[in-house]
Amino acid sequence: MILELRNINSGYLKGVDVIRNIDIQLPAKSVTGILGLNGAGKSTLCGAIMNMNPYRSGKLFFDGHDVSELNTEQLSRLGISMFLSSGNTFPELSVWENLLIASGNSSIGEIDEIRSIFPVLSGNKSALKSKLADKLSGGERGQLAIAMCLLTNPKLLILDEPSAGLSPTAIKTMYMILEKIRSERGVTILLIEQSAELARRFCNQIYIIENGIIK
Question: How many CB atoms are closer than 10 A to CB 15?
Fold first, then answer.
């Protein structure tokens, strides 16, 4: 298992757990879905994995190691990358500058390889240098944000509702991209979704979360 959560309890207010007794296992190079309604605890679960909202009890194992005490930056360096539905791009910078920031030590060739997966990024490089990220549509910003995640060369990619707020056409494009990432990149994916139809089509296994508890 590349990721294992054992009896995780987490929340935001003292003494109040939003998620309770969470036990989840993610096989390597698989796609695991977390399905639930708004307020069920899906995003809280993502935040707990990344230690963005610390868990009060339980253990987190990644790639066979206990990483329960590591902070968000340390987890990222180990190979966990997270896409947030609220966006994790820099709107005041160009699309190209966003890619460069995320790329770290990646070569231009590696950036171009990632760009080729995403329709909005695969065109002329000069256009990406002149276009600000905040001029992209919601679906296009989502593509950029996931490309930035991939440029960190993750072992595990957490996708927090990548279809949220998108048109049916943009959702179709997004899932075509995710299918390509799954088939070509070999990255383990944890997908947070509200749509049971999308989750069933894309995931190898699905957990249902309701009122902070895995059903």
Answer: 6
- Number of compact structural domains in the chain: 1
Q: pTM value?
A: 0.90
Residues in contact with 147: Cβ distance below 8 Å, sequence separation at least 6, in sequence order: 99, 102, 114, 115, 117, 118, 121
Token reading at 144: 């950029």
Ramachandran angles phi, psi of 99, nearest 5°: -65, -40
End-to-end CA distance of the chain: 21
Q: Provide the pLDDT for residue 87.
A: 67
Phi, psi at 63, each rounded to 5°: 55, 35
Tokens of 36: 């639930």
Provide the pLDDT confidence category of residue 85 given band limits of 50, 70 and 90. low
Q: Tokens at residue 130, please?
A: 């002149």
Domain that holds residue 148: 29-53+79-214
Give dist(CA 100, CA 108) in Å, integer.
9
Q: For residue 166, give Cα distances in angstroms to 21, 89, 141, 153.
A: 32, 17, 11, 26
Domain-located, residue 67: no
**Residue type at 203?**
C
Using 50, 70 and 90 to split pLDDT, how confident is the model at 184?
confident
Inside any domain, residue 88 = yes
Percent of the chain at pLDDT exceeding 70: 98
The one-letter amino acid code at 175 reads Y
